[in-house]
């Protein structure tokens, strides 16, 4: 089991390596969410779900558990890059505990702010995360209005 200070050193090591290898500086928060993403799993029987593929061809899925109009659980998966993992992780962290309407308002900027920013060419990863989160909320709202459609969900 790795200690907290060993994990901090690991993060600083990755941060240094990424600067050397890509020339890009990622915040410690980005590295932390990449190495230890929040809820990176497929949720069974979610109340809301969306799968979105971005222009870069990476795909993200978001799953929501909703109780009394509050998002009590959120998870994600992605086949994307470091920053899409960090963005998905931040999106579900921001969503948990908020009302459905507040979650629908979570934006690309909210995710970027939570992560301490992203390099210019990676900012679209945060947009993919906010778009997928919003689509999952819309899926939840649609199924609340027409619950029988749940039977035909794939
Ligand atoms: Fe496609 Fe990050 S490069 S989501």
Task: Explain this structure.
The chain is an alpha+beta fold. It has one domain: Sufe protein. Chain: A. It has helices at residues 4-22, 28-35, 82-95, 100-104, 108-115, 123-145; strands spanning 48-53, 59-67, 70-78. Strands 1-2-3 form a three-stranded antiparallel beta sheet, covered by helices on one side. The radius of gyration is 16 Å and the shape is elongated. The termini are far apart.
Short description:
The chain is 50% helix and 16% strand.
Helical content class: 40-55%
> How many domains make up the coordinates?
1
- Specify Rg, calculated over alpha carbons: 16 Å
Unreliably modeled segments: none
Q: What structural class is derived from the secondary structure elements?
A: alpha+beta
The set of bound ligands, ions and cofactors reads:
FE2/S2 (inorganic) cluster
N-to-C order of helices and strands: HHEEEHHHH
Mean pLDDT figure: 92
Q: What would the CATH topology be?
A: Sufe protein. Chain: A
Number of helices: 6
Distance between the termini: 39 Å
* Shape descriptor: elongated
Largest sheet: 3 strands, antiparallel
The top-level CATH class is Alpha Beta
CATH-defined architecture: Alpha-Beta Complex
Beta-strand portion reads 15-25%
Q: Give the spatial strand order of the biggest sheet.
A: 1-2-3
Record field, number of beta strands: 3
Which features does this protein show?
single chain; 154 residues; alpha+beta; Sufe protein. Chain: A; three-stranded antiparallel sheet; 6 helices; 50% helix; binds FE2/S2 (inorganic) cluster
């Amino acid at each position: 089991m790795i200690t907290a200070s060993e994990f901090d050193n690991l993060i600083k090591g990755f941060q240094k390596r990424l600067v050397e290898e890509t020339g890009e500086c990622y915040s410690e928060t980005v590295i932390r969410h990449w190495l230890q993403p929040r809820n990176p799993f497929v949720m069974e029987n979610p109340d809301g779900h969306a799968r979105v593929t971005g222009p870069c061809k990476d795909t993200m899925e978001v799953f929501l558990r909703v109780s009394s109009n509050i998002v009590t659980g959120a998870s994600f998966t992605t086949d994307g890059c470091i920053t899409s993992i960090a963005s998905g992780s931040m999106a579900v962290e921001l969503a948990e505990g908020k009302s459905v309407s507040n979650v629908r308002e979570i934006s690309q900027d909210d995710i970027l702010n939570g992560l301490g920013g992203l390099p210019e060419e990676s900012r679209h990863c945060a947009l993919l995360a906010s778009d997928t989160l919003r689509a999952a909320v819309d899926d939840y709202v649609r199924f609340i209005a027409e619950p029988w459609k749940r039977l035909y969900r794939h």
